[in-house]
Every structure is written in C-alpha cells, then in structure tokens.
Amino acid sequence: MPCDVEWLRKYVSDQCEDAFAHLVRKHLGLVYGVATRVLRDRSLAEEVTQAAFLELARQAASLGDRTVLSAWLHEVTRRKAIDVYRRERRRRERESLAMDQASGRTESSWDDLAPVVDEGLGALGHRDRTVLVMRYLEGDSLREIANVLGISEDAAQKRVARALDRLRRFLARRGVAIGSTGLGAALTANGVTVAPEALVQMITVQMANVLPASASLGGWLSTLSMPASSKLLVTAAAVVVVGWNVYQAQRIARLTTHALEVDASRTAALVEFERARDLIAAQNGEILGLRSRSNEFASDKLELMRLRNQVGELRAALRISEATQARFSNESDASEEALKSWMNRVKIMKALSGTMPDRAIPELRLLTEEDWFELAKEPLGLAPEGFDFSDPRNARMALSAARAKAKNRLAWVFHRALQGYAEANGGRVPQEVRELQPYLMNTNVIGPASSVHISADEVRDDILERYQMVAEGRLADQKEGEPVIAEVTPVDPVFDTLLRVGNNWLSVSPVEGP
Fold first, then answer.
1. Are 367 and 453 in contact (CB under 8 A)?
2. Burial of 248 by CB count in 10 Å (0-12 exposed, 13-18 middle, 19+ buried)?
3. 229 touches 295 (CB < 8 A)
C-alpha cells in the first residue's frame, strides 16, 4: 500500500479526491479523538475535525516527504481545538457545571486523564510525540513504527517506552497520578475514538472547495459554459447531496454516542485497577529504596537529600532491564556507583559554561535539576560510557543541547506572556520584548505553557536583551510560520539553535552552520 505522503502527492498532482478520502478514512479516528478529548463536545469536535482536514488539503503541496502525517494532524488538530475551546470556554463551563449537577456524575480515571493527555503530548518533543501518536492514537504496530522511522523494532519499543514515561511524568505534575502500564492501557482503550462515518463524506464535499488551482479553475469554467437550465439542475443536485450528507452525519453521530459511552464504562474499571496497582508498587519501591540507602550515603548529606527525592524517578528514567534492576537491589556498591556516575555527568555538564564562557547564555539558569539529569542521562542520545566530554567538539555539542533545553522553557514563557500582553492591550503585540515582563507569569493560558514553572525574577534583562520583536500589529493577524519574537544571534555559529515564537506556535531549531 502507498504511504501517506504518496497519497498526498496523488491528491495534489492528479486532483484525485479518492486519494484524499482514503487519508480521511485512515486518520479520522485520530483527529476526531484529539478534538473530542480537548473540547469534550462532539458537535464542536466535528467542526474541528473538518477544519483540520481542510487545513491538510490546503497545505498538501507544501508537506515534505519525511512528514509523519499522523503526528502533523495531531498537532494541527490540537491547536485548532484549543482555539475553539477558548472561544467556547465560558459557555462550556456553565453548561458542564449544570450537566454535572443535574446528573450527579462522578468522573472516572479516564475523565481525569482525557482533558490533559493531548496537552501532555503537545509538551513532548517531536520524536516522543510522533511515536506515541502512531502507537496509541493511530494503533500502529511496533513493526509499522519501525518501518516509518527507519529503525529496528527493539529501538521502536524502547522509544515508545521512554516517551510514555515522559508523558506519565508530565501528567503527574498536572495532578493526574497514573503508572506507565495504566497509562498505556488507558490510551490503548480510549486513544482511538470512533468518529461518525458520515464525517468522511462531509469533509470530502468541503474539500472540493480547496482543490489545487488547476482542478478548481477547470471545474468552474466547465460550469460557466453550461446552459442556464443545466446550471440550475447542478446547483439543486449539489444542495440535495450536501443536505443528505449532513442529515446522515447527525443520525450516525446520535447512534454512535451510546456505543462510545458503553465502551468507556467497560474500560474504566481496568484503568482504575492498573492505576492503583502502579501507585502501590511505586510507593513500596520508594520506601524500600530509601531504607536501603539511608546508611550508605550518610557521608554526603546533600547528595542523600537529593537521592531521597529523586531515586524513584532516576530508576524509571534509566530504563534498565529487570536483570540489572535485580542486580542493583542486591549489590549496593553497583547501585551507588551508577548513581554517582550519573551525578558526576551532571556536574560536568553544569561546568561547561565555565570552561566555555563565550558559548554560555544566561537562560541556562532556567534549567531545573530534572532538566540537567535528563541531559546527562544519555548525552546527545549516546550511551554515557561512550561519550567523552574532554573532546572539544563533544563539549560544544553537549552545551548546545543544554542551551536548547533552556530556550525551550523560555519559549513557553514568552508564549504565555505574549498571549497575556495581547489580551490586556487590545490584541496587539508589544514593540519591545521588555514590555512582556509584567506578563511572564500569565496564568490565563491553556496548553503546555501553563506547566512551565519559572519565576518572573529569573527572566532578567540579560535574557530579554538577547531577543527582539520582529512583528507588529495584532497578534491574531500574524500568519502561521511567521515569528513575532526571535533570537538576535546564536553564540555558536555551528552548534546552536534559534528561538522563535509566533501566534500559537514556537520553535527552537538548529542554526544552519557554515
């Protein structure tokens, strides 16, 4: 079977509506599921689903050959759903409160998870988000994921496991406690949402309005050349077809609602069981780990305090095999050596800014201890034992990775500050980056930006002066892909990234070195 990109090329080059309809049928469950989870309203979800596929039709010719369409659709749908959510937020909150009070419904574990799972996916890196969308929202097998990404099945399985654990940690910070096993089961059971079949027809009918220019022009010319009576017949037939499709969509949506509710109730008990089991296991493991290490690390009190708080997360992040975990449990010296080696890499990475002051940036102080541990876990994606920090090239690349992570945190802060400034100033963007200072802690924002905890006094003038406003006017009028805030210049012409923030998008992308 042709891949998604080949279907898109067929649609663009041959104006083949069947090719686009194939893509709609294949990814409809993913798109409709994302919209439903974010909006919690099926009629609005259908609106967003149609808008997402119309966006795909418009941008079909510009998507690259390496585009993973499922991940692209997930991000587009999430952004459009957030826009609709903001528009409907006040009305939806009143309606939701009234419905809950009338029915006396108690939310299940999936009800707690659903509103934030897509926000968590959006907060992940592109690679992690792609594998989770393919695995749980599209239902692809590990072999299919491996073929698309050009890796082995074992590597695909490890990548999915690491991404799932990062999503679990994000959800924990949002107050949704669930283990990796329970999270995987919940996504498997609820990630793919059954969408009304008639949506395919509705979308393809609307898609005809955004066909490539040659097809649209030819269709209109042929219509203009018809006699007046023929034009009336064509118009009447089109109205009847569209009206029938809308009627069928509403009818099928009502019929599927009951089936979806029954399916959700069946999986709720399983998800709750997995959640409780993982919580108990995690608590027991943490207690045993703290008891066994309390005497061994008494010589270094500061290190002991950090390990008490982080040992559970460190072991999960290491993703070591069960055999290695058992060996660490029985051989205290090996466990101590592994943890000390990891912490030593953290110290080395923190010291890089001192050895290369011309390539250090003030944003590095925004990194948390968790960020440094993640950077030191697998430097540049390589096994720690195979990475030499004494190599100047490796050191520059490692410091570049730290700068990129710090800029990513700052980008979310800029994003929420930009939204706050626009809301307080008639929708306009500021003339200077420093004008964003009072809005850095803006809490009236939906999405990953709300979970980035950076105090306003940490983003001082030495950080703000490294960025400039590159757009003016109203924030809502800024085109997608055109930045509003941009980094002035990188500190390393080869190994560095550039931060850019626009209207509802941001990026920290590599510079094009010499």
1. no
2. middle
3. no
pLDDT at 80: 96
pLDDT at 158: 92
Contact present, 492 and 474 (Cβ < 8 Å): no
| Alpha-carbon gap, residue 75 to 31, rounded angstroms | 10
What burial class does residue 395 get, using C-beta atoms within 10 Å of its C-beta: 0-12 exposed, 13-18 middle, 19+ buried? Answer: buried
Q: Please tell me whether residues 229 and 308 are part of one structural domain.
A: no
Clarify whether residues 139 and 52 are in a common domain.
Answer: yes
What residues are paired with 131 via a beta bridge? Answer: none
Closest residue by Cα to residue 9 from 53, 72, 64, 77: 64
At residue 267, φ and ψ (nearest 5 deg) are -85, -15
Instruction: Tell me the C-alpha distance between 55 and 76, whole Å.
Output: 8
Residues 246 and 119 in one domain: yes
Do 83 and 227 share a structural domain? yes
Ranges of residues in the chain whose predicted pLDDT is under 70? 1, 90-109, 192-202, 204-338, 386, 446-450, 456, 513-514
What is the predicted pLDDT for the residue at 373? 75
Whole-number pLDDT of residue 99: 64
| Phi/psi-derived region of residue 477, left when phi > 0, alpha when psi is between -120 and 50, beta in every other case | alpha
Which pLDDT score is estimated for 219?
A: 45
Residues 466 and 366 in one domain: yes
3-state secondary structure 14-42: HCCHHHHHHHHHHHHHHHHHHHHHHHCCH
Distance, in Å, from the CA atom of 303 to the CA atom of 315, rounded to the nearest integer, reads 16
pLDDT score recorded for residue 279? 62
Structural domain boundaries, residue 163: 4-272
The string of pLDDT tens digits covering residues 48-85 is 999 999 999 999 999 988 899 999 999 999 999 999 99
Distance CA 168, CA 123 (A): 12
Burial class (CB in 10 A: 0-12, 13-18, 19+), 101: exposed
C-alpha to C-alpha distance for 159 and 105, rounded to whole angstroms: 38
Pairing of strands 467-469, 485-487: antiparallel
What does residue 428 show for φ and ψ, rounded to 5 degrees?
-90, 160
Handedness of CA 164, 123, 60, 23 (dihedral sign): positive
Q: What is the pLDDT of residue 291?
A: 54
* Cα 504 from Cα 482, distance rounded (Å): 11
User: Which of these, 75, 163, 165, 33, lies nearest to 447 by C-alpha position?
Assistant: 75
Burial environment of residue 423 by CB neighbours within 10 A (0 to 12, 13 to 18, 19 or more): middle
